[in-house]
Amino acid sequence: MRRLSLSSRLALLFAACTAVVSLFAGVLFNRASEAHFIELDQQQLDGQLIGLRRALQDVQPGQREARLADELSRQADLALRITGSDGQREYDSSTQIPEVLPTQSGLTTVSHEGIEYRVLNAPLYPDKPDSPQLTLLLDITHHQHFLQRMQHLIWLTVGLSALATALLGAWAARSGLRPLRRMSAVARGISAHSLNARLPEAQMPPELAEMAHSFNAMLGRLDDSFQRLSAFSADIAHELRTPLSNLLTHTQVTLTRPRPIEDYREALHSNLEELQWMAQLVNDMLYLAKADHGLLMPRREALELADESDVLLEFFAPLAEDAGVTLSREGHSRIEGDRSMLRRALSNLLDNALRFTPAAGSVRLSIVDQPQAVQVSIENTGDGISAELLPRLFDRFYRADPARQEGSSEHAGLGLAITQSIVRAHGGEIRCESKAGWTRFVIELPKGE
């Protein structure tokens, strides 16, 4: 069975609400009209009762019927029955009066042969216990006809108002849902080659403005991800092109003529270096792919960051001494994490710092113990990094040094991306701060339980 559209559902909801409200209002009006007629009938019968008591107060028995006929002739829709104290019927003003009537005092309603009567029972002489009983009957058929016509009008009004509201509701819902159709049209036009479409948030109603903002943000993230993916593919080809070209050229040159065995051995050693770099590049890419899919699961073991840092500083000490760079460390803290992964992350940062620190400069590793986290920062002196380049430092294959545009067997531009993946796998964050004269990488890692 076909599902109803949102516009049809809203239209039916509007129609149902209107029908219920109209019906409720009609019922209230009908009840109010009926109560009003009962009040008018009560007042009329009370007035007639007073007139009849006054007319029969001092009348002689032989003149009673004439007096009653004279009184009742003024009200064509009024009938009277008089019953003696012994229960015997003494007088009927009309032969159409029902044989059986209510005997209780007060106002009641009786239906007889299609005619509605309002009946009022009261004693002729209220101060006498053996007083005859007066039963006044008022024909209210015209009242009932009016109420029936009003009920028909109520049902007609309910039906027409529900139909009109359904049509207006469908039009209003279709107009109100136009922004959703616009979003659908934009979504249909989205592909990997057209992610620059955006919804006009300023033209959206407040209820959909937040959705449009989220939709545009999603398109922005998708666009950025596709651009990064395209750039990543291009960067892979760019990085592998140089070593592959070197391998092919070197091998072709070596095979152009017979050579001594030592020349072949030297050529193989040279090719081995290129192949080792390519293998490392592939391993790094696989490592990042595992990080993207949440497959990096660091082991949790208690680590003293000061000890781990000293091991790394000792490893880099000869390189720093050759470059004339001073290494130092301050602070200490304990943390739970994966020793090999954290050493790799810190090693990447120290290697970057040493490569970009001028002679007579310094590299400092600081550990700050905080209540809920540990902050590890590695800073070095030297030329700063411009603010517009900072957000891209952790992109894959990105190099802040414009002179390094070709692939090489040293650095492929994956070190910072791997470091960021390791830090995030530990539930932390990494950022870079740079001003004229120094650059600092700051890692914040949560403490273990």
Describe the secondary structure blueprint for this structure.
Layout: H1 6-55, H2 64-72, E1 78-83, E2 89-92, E3 106-112, E4 115-123, E5 133-139, H3 141-176, H4 178-188, H5 206-254, H6 261-292, E6 301-304, H7 305-323, E7 326-330, E8 334-337, H8 339-355, E9 362-369, E10 373-382, H9 415-425, E11 429-435, E12 437-446
Parallel strand pairs: 7-9
Antiparallel strand pairs: 1-2, 1-5, 3-4, 4-5, 6-8, 9-10, 10-12, 11-12
Order of helices and strands: HHEEEEEHHHHEHEEHEEHEE
| Global Rg | 50 Å
Report the biggest beta sheet as strand number plus sense, adding barrel if it closes.
Answer: 5 strands, antiparallel
Proportion of beta-strand residues: 15-25%
Number-wise, the strands total: 12
**Span between termini:** 55 Å
Spatial strand sequence of the major β-sheet: 2-1-5-4-3
What does this molecule look like?
There is one protein chain. The protein is α+β, with helices and mostly antiparallel strands and 449 residues long. The chain has 9 helices and 12 strands. A hairpin with a 5-residue loop joins strand 1 and strand 2. The longest helix is centred in the first third of the chain and has 50 residues. 16% of the residues are buried.
